[in-house]
Amino acid sequence: MQGLATGLMLGGAQYVATWVLKSEDAVTFLFIALIAPALFAAPLWGVIARRVGKEGGFAAASTLFGIAALSMVLLVWFPGGWVYLPVALAGAGYAGMQSLPMAMLPDVISHDARLHGEGRAGSFGGVWTAGETTGMALGGTVLTIVLALSGYLASTAGQSVDQPGSAIVGIVLSFSLVPAVIIAASLVSLRRYRLRKADIEETR
Question: Does the CA dihedral 22-27-29-33 come out positive or negative?
Answer without folding.
Answer: positive
